[in-house]
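Field reference: sequence -> structure
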Amino acid sequence: MSPTARSGPRYKLHYFKARGRAEVTRLLFKAAGVPFVDETFSMEQWPSLKSFMPTGSVPVLEMGGEMFAESGAIVRWAARKFGLAGKSDGEQLRVEEVIAGADDIRDLFLSWFFKPDPQSKAEVEDQMKQKACKLFDRWESLACETRSSQRVYTYMVGTSLTVADLTLYDIMEQLSTVPSIELTAYPKLLNIRTTVASLTPIKHYLDTRPSYPF
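Structure field:
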């Protein structure tokens, strides 16, 4: 038995009971088949936990007794660690482009989700729609189709899974809850969403994942 098997997973991800800024990291671990502890907590519990986090924010990845902050840094590290960051310099740069664009959309989505008054919510929704449509138009033109066993697979970068696909899947799941954003205009991106959801480890995760509000 390996040391990891004796001691349990060496990674622990700290975040709210939500998809939010932690879901792409979760998808990376699941896609790579790497065990981790998904340490979640409620909004009500957060004030008592905040002081234990390095920057007073989450997600935080705990590894080897150390705590690492910033969702973007965690995602990029995990993608490199698990071989899902792209195979060439060009692919890696394209992956980074998708991650950065999705982060911009996610910032607007979370702002929209928590806006208390209808007018402010509508204003942010309009900004989010404009940003998402601009990026989705570009990503639709960049998506790569490859045929295998009489089936067409679509990936955001290259001919195999990368963190860009997982990122796109997550952002499309979030935007599917926004009334004014129509995703059917992007068939290639929807194919990527389907491809990701059909991967065996991802499908199992999605089938057993708790129902989170955002």
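Note: Residues 89-199 form a domain with the Glutathione S-transferase Yfyf (Class Pi); Chain A, domain 2 fold (CATH 1.20.1050.10).
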